[in-house]
Design a protein that fits this description.
By secondary structure, this protein is an alpha/beta fold. It has 9 helices and 5 strands. The protein has a 5-stranded parallel β-sheet, with helices on both faces. The chain is elongated, with a radius of gyration of 20 Å. The protein starts with 23 loop residues before the first helix and ends in a 9-residue tail after the last helix. Mean pLDDT is 85; it is low at 1-12.
Length: 223
């Protein structure tokens, strides 16, 4: 295998639909998300652990529906009197402004648009203080995203390395995937660190083993 040098390549549109790697289950969830005409109500919650693809799906939904993607911090500066006639996505929704979420719930209902909330926790655990918001959250449909499995992590690792023009050996990918935390964020951090750690060496199992031994804090503590 030829040696490969690290390149500072920044993947464009990393939250685009083309860059979303989906299992059969995730593809089915995306199908429901993107068929807004089949929703039972204008409100939807995407629930899943860190790295399960919530934020990526939220960006895809906002892009395909020509809507607005908001972080939790964005909601505290939101002007409730000038809300646009578009769909909205709120990331890290449990930390968003309760007042903003309440107004967004009502706004999309009046304008026949949709609101998607992204969260790692069930709404009942949000410690909501506005009773009207709590009742709306409890009535929302929840779609649960699974933790990435090993096959998905392998696909994600291969894609991340390909974006950097790196072609690791299969046993290299297998070694990393079996030991890393099951999240996209962990995969991104490991790939970035490995790119610089390699320093011209081939991306094979020997490199993966050496990297693991020196950077065990990046991997699952149970391994």
């Amino acid at each position: 295998m030829s040696t490969q040098l690290p390149l500072d390549l920044e993947a464009a549109d990393r939250f685009s639909r083309d860059n979303f790697i989906a299992t059969t289950e995730l593809a089915a969830l995306m199908g429901v998300l993107l068929h807004r005409d089949q929703w039972l109500s204008p409100h939807l919650i995407l629930l899943g652990p860190e790295g399960s693809g919530k934020t990526h799906l939220g960006h895809i939904f906002a892009e395909t529906s020509q809507g607005r993607f908001l972080t939790a911090d964005d909601t505290y500066a939101l002007d409730h009197g000038t809300l646009e006639n578009v769909t909205y996505v709120v990331d890290d929704a449990e930390n968003a402004s309760e007042e903003a979420l309440f107004h967004l719930c009502n706004h999309v209902q009046k304008t026949a648009k949709q609101l998607v909330l992204l969260t790692e926790n069930q709404p009942i655990a949000w410690d909501v203080h506005l009773p009207d918001l709590a009742s709306r959250l409890n009535a929302m449909r929840i779609m649960t995203l699974p933790e990435p499995d090993e096959d998905l992590l392998i696909a994600i690792l291969n894609k991340l390395f390909a974006q950097r023009a790196i072609s690791p050996s299969p046993d290299f990918i297998d070694y990393i995937a079996r030991r890393m935390d099951r999240s996209v964020s962990a995969a991104q951090k490991i790939v970035t660190e490995l790119e610089h750690y390699a320093n011209g060496r081939p991306f094979n199992r020997a490199l993966a083993k050496s990297f693991f031994e020196q950077n065990s804090d990046l991997f699952d503590a149970d391994v």
